[in-house]
Specification:
The structure is a homodimer. In chain A, about 40% of the residues lie in helices and about 15% in strands. Chain A has about 350 residues and is an alpha/beta fold. In chain A, the strands form 3 sheets. A 6-stranded parallel beta sheet of chain A has the order 2-1-3-4-5-11, sandwiched between helices. A 4-stranded parallel beta sheet of chain A has the order 7-6-8-9, with helices on both faces. Chain A has a two-stranded antiparallel ribbon with strand order 10-12. Chain A starts with a helix and ends in a 12-residue tail after the last strand.
């Protein structure tokens, strides 16, 4: 340990005596130096002495549809980091095609005495779903935060992407580029964000271009690459020059549909995704998309959870809406001149 | 509930009497029909009756560096799904730039009486790191499975991508395309997979082209987009016509470096990534890469964990190597003719 102490002292730029003081939990060291020493210790791969470790104040579940979609992985990462900084233990629960449901995870979390659950795009986003599961958790005095969904039947804490604002920003961008025949490749409207996107789309098209059959240019499918390809194929055939997609994965599918038809993006077809993640800047063509405020939403979810655990009355029953932003890349351009 | 029962019966294509029998846990229903009914119940958003729910047999930690990199998100997703199917509760623990360390998570998991931990690319992958933390867990009779790292000092269960085989496949592809000046943009060699890639690269270049200074064309940096860009810039300046990258994110950075220099891929520069995920097929240009056997590795990790929990002696101290595969897309091509 002598060499290690000397290494550590050298690395941090303090004396070995200071290192000793930190490791033995003695006074006479500034908070800043103490943190530096402990961080260097972590970085060099040593274990912290037991007494300097933090201890968990409880388990918090984070229920997500999956981790394959970058949006859900980012939510899970931001939220678990923020929880751990509050000495809470995050349990990320990705639902799984092979059959582990939201309810299975709720049971597991209750079995392990979780003290709160954060749901991301769960059944609360599905308007046809039974709100009873959430009402039961609340009557058992378990705080729940619900992200990207809303139901007035549940008196929980709601945090949502402002899908209407995102849809407006995307449509305004396409309209400003001269597009008139704009299609919407959306997910199932039983999900609240999809219903809001649908309604805002029809409303804004009507406001801009006057009354018309705008439903005709809406195709609903799965929020996947395959779903996007299927919906986009139909919308392209119907003569749309621009497509707004319900997710970035749908936009990836729309790109495939355009390639199949020999169309060039954005020359023949403009495309906007929804969600954004690092990789969307690297796809071909770099995708114009609506970026959800994942970090801010995750931090708000954790702040609300921490307040609720401390018994501080908060925003129950309200929905906090977070404004997304339009990230313009290479997949949108001026409307083509057609017959 | 009458309408619900009828809906459900209609959906599954059985009588309401059969549905009742399933919901009340009575006999006279085939396993297959029972599963169908329960799945339809889940899909329609209803809660399963309590008695039909599974109950957890314990917590298993899954410690990953982050969830931002699709590889780690996929590992976490596959492993947690497989654990849940064994009625084990997965706790995914993504380490975090803001300071939650592997050791913090170990403490949290012990505080919550986890009965096993699966580590992905943790300190066990770092040759300079102290193996004591793992030895302690083992002496406390806690089964641990360690993915993508190896140390003989720990008698745990090791599962690794066969990085040497992946490196060979990548290099053989580039050599067959006529490249001779091949660069390696690698992560820090203190990490075992990086060291193996480094050694195999030098060995195979020597075997193919005879003795030479192949270290000259190796640049080490962070396994990120920025690290890839920095390493690639240097290797391009040194005259390499093809680059093998330590991760897909490094390859994304290498693409940026090539663009900055006005090079076209693969005409002027061929590029191979490492890891693969859905999105890598959509980037510009679609990335040739080495796909880790994430699903098979995750399933093996869970099988081993389940055996260990049942006290069945298994492969402790051995390293199971999983062969990755070369996925050829658009970022590799014939070597350019140069002076």
């Amino acid at each position: 340990m002598v060499t290690k102490l000397a290494d550590l002292a050298h690395q941090v730029g303090v004396s070995t005596a200071t290192i000793s003081r930190v490791l033995n939990g003695r006074d006479g060291v500034s908070e800043e130096t103490r943190d530096k020493v402990l961080q260097a210790l972590d970085a060099m791969g040593y274990e912290r002495p037991y007494r300097l470790k933090k201890h968990s104040r409880g388990l918090i579940g984070i229920v997500v549809p999956n981790l394959e979609q970058p949006l859900f992985a980012l939510f899970a990462q931001f939220i678990s980091g923020a929880l751990a900084r509050h000495d809470l233990t995050p349990i990320i629960c990705p639902q799984d095609a092979a059959g582990v449901s939201e309810d299975d995870y709720i049971d597991m979390l209750l079995d392990h005495h979780a003290c709160g659950i954060i749901f991301i795009a769960g059944h609360h986003a599905d308007q046809t779903s039974d709100p009873l599961r959430y009402q039961r958790l609340l009557s058992a005095a378990l705080p729940i935060v619900l992200i990207n969904g809303f139901t007035p039947a549940v008196n929980g804490y709601f945090i949502s992407d402002d899908t209407e604002a995102g849809t407006e920003a995307a449509l305004a961008h396409l309209i400003s580029l001269g597009h008139r025949r704009i299609g919407l490749a959306n997910g199932p409207v039983k999900f609240i964000p999809m219903a809001r996107r649908h309604d805002r789309f029809v409303q804004m098209m009507t406001d801009t271009f006057g009354p018309g059959d705008y439903e005709r240019d809406i195709e609903t499918s799965l929020l996947t690459v395959e779903g996007g390809q299927a919906a986009a194929t139909q919308l392209i055939d119907r003569g749309c020059t621009a497509l707004l997609c319900g997710s970035d994965f749908m936009a990836l599918g729309a790109i495939q549909a355009a390639l199949r038809k020999g169309l060039s993006i954005p020359r023949d077809l403009s495309l906007i995704g929804y969600d954004d993640s690092v990789v969307m800047g690297f796809i071909q063509p770099a995708l114009t998309t609506i970026r959800q405020s994942t970090l801010a939403m995750g931090q708000a979810a954790v702040s609300i959870m921490v307040s609720a655990l401390s018994g501080i009355p908060s925003t129950a029953g309200q929905e906090l809406l977070f404004r997304p932003e339009l990230v313009v890349r290479m997949s949108t351009g001026r409307a083509p001149r057609r017959g």
